[in-house]
Write the structure tokens for this entry.
Amino acid sequence: MKAKSWFEVDKDGLKALQLGKPKSYIIRELVANAWDENITFCKIETAHKNGIATISVEDDNPEGFRDLTDSYTIFKHTIKRSNPKQRGRFNIGEKQVLAICRDAKVESTKGTITFNKDNTRSHSTLHRSKGTKVTVNIRMSKADYEEILDALKLYLSPKNIVTTINGQRLDYKQPFKTISATLQTELESNGIFRKTQRKTEIEIHQVIGDSYLYEMQIPVTKIDCQFSIDIQQKIPLSIDRETVSQAFLESVFAEVLNAIFNDIPEEKSSEKWIRQATSNERISNDAVKTIIQKRFGDKVVVANPNDPNANDTAISKGYRVIQGRELSGEEWQQFKDKAPISSTSSLFGTKGFALAQPITPTPEQIKVSEYAKKLHKRLNDIDLTVRFVKCSGSNESADYGNATLTFNLSHLPSDFFDNHLKTTDLILHELGHQFGNHTEYSYHQALTRMAQELIIIALEDPKFFD
């Protein structure tokens, strides 16, 4: 009994797996094979007639198709696996294309292979003097054919290859910026194909419309970014060559943002891709600091949920208070590590008053203390306790809580208590906190009520102020 090989491939089964895919993969595989070689031009021709799309890709590689058996042998070893600057690795792409063809032909320097309509394959010694031309005929709708043409519009021309599409040259586009970074790639070494880290260039392109992640000029997947990003080496891809991991994408976003954070407009500083970039450990200190400023402004603090008074004070002083839910855990970690933001309590917390150094008041300060007690009793029918302290650890000039008014002499000028307008202003400001915080309606309502009552008192009972 004759031994048989381990595996067999069913063409119809492979075809069934391809039919539901976007037809753009057809042109991707054919063009990638050409661009991977030592060529100076690539000619792409397409046509659609009577439900048949004809697509040909021709190049001028002096060696031609290196091994014609590659065209029909799935997963055959290829030297492209060990070259990070070539896109091929699986040696399955052209077979995925051929599986859905009505017929096809590969013409190269080593002969011609014809894939016939009856599912047979024939070989001929007819050959080209240089280069390879692959022609495929595929049944498809006009819409599918238009999809291929639309996909071709997204391609970026390699700088050293003249590429034409139906007679029109694909112009080279100068990147907005080119940077270097160490990224994950896939390479074969000692017979093992594995992921590894390698330094490469990243080309950043400004776009109008949709943005894409590219692998050496060929679009891989649409990305939520204001730039298109072209990685100049193999990128880790699934076998369908259309998806990358989220972790890889976030690493790319971080490297890009590190290079262009100064170019990000304020109105785009909270876009999803930037938030993903600032969540990544690769993000730089300067990038984080700049994005914080552009996203939240120059005056920014982190809310302390256990210190609502400090949060409220920060808002009243024009600070942008970041709440915990506004950032992901990963963003908070990077912000903490690379651009720490002060908390509302550290800037405006008054808990330190309880441990502040008590100060014996001067005669003028005693007068102000009695005045404050008199005001609170008359306006709000509340007995008031007044304290004088020094607390350099707090930025507040005064604090009110539990019917106690505390003056912080560390932040009040020595002549403050001689100015009745200033003392009255500060006292009313603090007494209003009996009814709410700075940003609450009840607080402002209390201030206007007390001011109104003081006017009436001044008119009807001026001796109150003696």
